[in-house]
Amino acid sequence: QVQLQESGPGLVKPSQTLSLTCTVSGDPITTNGICWSWIRQPPGKGLEWMGSISNSGSTYYSPFLKSRTSIDRDTSKNQFTLQLSSVTPEDTAVYYCNAANMGGVYWGQGTQVTVSS
Questions:
Q1: How far apart are CA 9 and CA 28, in angstroms?
Q2: Does residue 1 register a pLDDT over 90?
């Protein structure tokens, strides 16, 4: 069973770039049929899909965040990453990585990121 763990700084200053890493165990991120995603949940709001990267490395982004979001991967470390540029306090949220395949959806525990000076 795939397991995911988010990591990164918990505090980011406005206008800076938020960078998070999702470390995957249990399955290579190149495994056919698995899609790897970043989702966030601002305080008091619902889940928001930010973007995904496929097993082949193709990327897909939310149109609302596309201009500020970049998702990449490091297959040697079995990790995929999120970068969100020009952050504002509205980007404060719990950030999750997940994996989806025919068997279901698997989530990391989430990591709190606060944008504040």
A1: 25
A2: no
Q: Please, which pLDDT band fits residue 103 given cuts at 50, 70 and 90?
A: confident
Buried b (16+ CB within 10 A) or exposed e, 3-24: ebebeeeeebeeeeebbbbbbb
Q: Is 64 left (phi over 0), alpha (psi -120 to 50) or beta?
A: alpha
Instruction: Assign 14 to helix, strand or coil.
Output: coil
Could you tell me whether strands 93-101 and 104-107 are parallel, antiparallel, or unpaired per DSSP bridges?
antiparallel
For residue 22, give the nearest of 108, 113, 115, 112 by alpha carbon: 108
72-85 pLDDT, tens digit per residue, is 999 999 999 999 99
Return the higher-pLDDT residue of 103 and 23.
Answer: 23
